[in-house]
Design goal:
Elements (H helix, E strand, L loop, with lengths): L3 E5 L6 H9 L17 E7 L2 E7 L11 H12 L5 E7 L6 H11 L5 E6 L7 H6 L9 E2 L8 H12 L30 E7 L5 H9 L17 E9 L4 E9 L12 H16 L2 E7 L6 H12 L3 E7 L7 H15 L8 E3 L8 H15 L5 H14 L11 E9 L4 E7 L6 H14 L8 E5 L9
Parallel strand pairs: 1-3, 1-4, 4-5, 5-6, 7-9, 7-10, 10-11, 11-12, 14-15
Antiparallel strand pairs: 2-3, 8-9, 13-14
Length: about 475
């Protein structure tokens, strides 16, 4: 495990900007308004050759523990457990505030090494705050500008005594790979980490479900809608009761996705865009429904987005423990899905409860199964045997009396399964016949309800006029 460095500070001092600077990419959402970050976010930092895990946290506020800011503070306090060093960040331009002094008192009682950072120290405007920071009792502050990258060498020197000497191997298993990493052409390993994203409308219970799986209050939850803003990836080992073995899972929590017309604030737009990137990074996506609200049009739009991105989709109806007439609800959702998602019939539908844990093991089992189907490759010989049988059972039409010739088919890639069909006059092939072939691939070749890509390709005529 890499050494763990926690970023602590009051709201809007630049913690997420510092996090992005150290990981080398914009993973955390950043905005001018305070309180953007709410959950802990982990990243892989490499500071001039010094490697460690950096943890972004919510802004520290002195409010009732029952309020949302109070619960955010509890999450920040929990992040200090197991940390090797804390970066205590203040705003050099604003100087030392009473809240900074309160945080300093708490950190002194934590017995964790502290590196004091005076952020926004570019130019002369931050000099008074830089001098005031000595009064906090953590020695000389590191003058830094997370926005412009100034002070990296000084931060390196301040962190090195705390990082060197800890167990610093290059085990990157706990760090998500770069977003958008291409893995489609690698040979599929069924025991590899399952990248599982949980998506849905606000307040569907996504964070509560992940907390139940983890067995701890890792993510901030509450009755308020839209608590989650960043997409948070958490590595976890799931005990599979069928195989009686642990299987690796990367759980990805996402912000709630409302109708586009209702998303007007810049921060929410950023959160939704982050959730869409999380879908692109995932292998399997669980769309979480609220049993008290049923299936709504926005749910179908989210499901269509997942399928358009080529990800394996599952639907889970949450809050099953409080559902009214559950049998009718389940059958109604099933019928609506088959009608609204005609391009992929039979998407797995499960009933779960994030509060009680009902159905969560079944959900994980189904997720591993559907990933196997999503990653499957069919030998060309077997594929063309099916192709010949499909053409014999239902020959392609002959528009205008001219026959459409379908010659052969091959699988171009996996994840999602993508096929290329060769023939002549394919521009006149009806969409209904194309759906017939896609449904046959899914049904006869074991691809279940995963998205299928079928590309039509005709040979180039060398004698055609240019």
């Amino acid at each position: 495990m890499l050494p763990q460095v926690i970023i602590i500070g009051r709201p809007n001092v630049g913690k997420s900007t510092l996090f992005n600077r150290l990981v080398g990419k914009k993973l955390a959402l950043v905005d001018d308004q305070p309180g953007v970050t709410r959950d802990r976010r982990f990243g892989d930092a490499d500071l001039l050759g010094l490697k460690f895990t950096i943890v972004d946290t919510a802004g520290w506020e002195d409010l009732d523990p029952e309020t949302l800011p109070g619960r955010m503070r509890q999450q920040t306090e929990a992040s200090l457990v197991g940390a090797d060093v804390a970066l205590f960040v203040i705003d050099a331009r604003a100087g030392v505030t009473p809240l900074d002094e309160e945080i300093a008192r708490y950190l002194r009682s934590s017995r964790i090494p502290i590196v004091l950072m005076a952020n926004k120290a570019e130019g002369r405007a931050g000099d008074p705050g830089l001098y005031d920071a000595f009064a906090l009792g953590f020695g000389e502050p590191v003058a830094f500008s997370a926005e412009h990258g100034q002070g990296l060498a000084d931060l390196f020197e301040a962190l090195r005594p705390h990082i060197e000497g800890t167990d610093d191997d290059d085990d990157d298993d706990d760090v998500p790979p770069p977003e958008g990493a291409e893995e489609e052409e690698e040979e599929f390993d069924p025991e590899s980490v399952l990248k599982l994203a949980i998506v849905g409308r606000p307040n569907a219970g996504k964070s509560t479900l992940i907390n139940k799986l983890l067995g701890e209050n890792r993510l901030l939850t509450g009755p308020e809608a839209g608590i989650t803003r960043d997409s948070i990836a958490i590595d976890w080992q799931w005990f599979d009761p069928t195989s009686e073995a642990y299987r690796p899972v990367r759980l990805i929590d996402t912000a709630g996705m409302r109708k586009k017309a209702q998303v007007v604030e810049k921060l929410e737009k950023m959160s939704v865009a982050d959730a869409r990137r999380a879908i692109d990074f995932a292998e399997v996506v669980v769309l979480l429904l609220d049993a008290t609200r049923g299936l709504e049009h926005q749910d179908l739009k989210i499901a269509s987005l997942v399928l358009e991105e080529g990800r394996a989709l599952m639907i889970a109806i949450n809050k099953w423990d409080v559902a009214e007439d559950p049998s009718a609800l389940f059958n109604g959702v099933r019928a609506a899905l088959d009608e609204g998602l005609a391009q992929v019939r039979g998407v797995p539908l499960l009933a779960v409860s994030a509060r009680t844990g009902k159905g969560l093991d079944q959900m994980l089992t189904a997720a591993f199964d559907i990933r196997s189907a999503w990653s499957k490759r069919v030998p060309t010989s077997a594929l063309n045997r099916w192709f010949d049988d499909a053409l014999a059972a239902n020959p392609p039409p002959a528009p205008g009396g001219k026959r459409i010739k379908l010659r052969y088919i091959t699988q171009a890639r996996t994840r999602p399964p993508s096929f290329v069909m060769f023939g002549t006059r394919l521009d006149q092939l009806p969409e209904s016949y194309r759906r017939y072939l896609v449904n046959g691939i899914r049904r006869e070749l074991g691809f279940d309800a995963v998205p299928i890509r079928l590309t039509l390709r005709s040979p180039t005529n060398p004698f055609a006029k240019k």
